[in-house]
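# nightly structure sweep
# worker-07 picked up a monomer target from the shared queue
# config: single-sequence mode, recycle default, output format = structure tokens
# input follows
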Amino acid sequence: MRLIDSSCAIGYKTVNYEVVNHENFLVREKVKQARDAGELLAELDFCGIDGAVVSHQTMADVDPDYGNRFVMEEVAKAPDRLYPTWTILPPVTEAQYAPERLFPAMKASGVKMLRAYPERNRYMLSRVGMGELLGEIEAARIPLYLSPSEGWPMIYEVLKEYPNLTVILYNYGLWSHSRFTFPLFRAYGNVYIESGDMQTAGEIKEICGKFGSERILFGSDFPSNAIGGPLAALLGSGIGREELANIASLNLERLWSEVKL
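# output follows
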């Protein structure tokens, strides 16, 4: 069974400082991080992971343009195991993110997945704010990573406007998320969840039973989580071999095959 971690970050200054978590508690996290591709590959090898979808911390902490270039430098060190994502901005202010420029650049660089940090980058993820890009992302079936650390209302609103948008939820907190996520699974067929924060007994099995194993992607959100925890939660989830294979990598590979660039 092939294992691909669907959400890892390369780069320092990620979490080793005080942060306000999803429940508005101030916490100080100290975790191991990967300075570069080599250190991330060592973590993947230690856990028996074949590959990973990666971002670079500078995509969020510094500047999307800078981070998008930097992640490609790291992915180039192991293109058969590391798969890049890019961060988007509104084309009305940054013309290089217009679909007619962004999509060819993605195709040339082998990028099939995107991320958005609207609150951090100060824009509205909406039809008014960037409809010319969101509509094309939806039509091209490009998966868009969204975290409710920037608010659940943002996710609910963008899906109301773009109901066929392919969204991967991640970094949603270790406490139960079902009252937020289950309505989204029920309403929108292209909403998926990365399993990194899903470390409570029974969560993976419950989602498989209610909505199917096709809605979950194995992932750790490393370095917010060490990779071993989410991996143990998946392997010990008590689901069947076919469901396990779907979550481990088949669902992710199916999403890649559906992207039209």
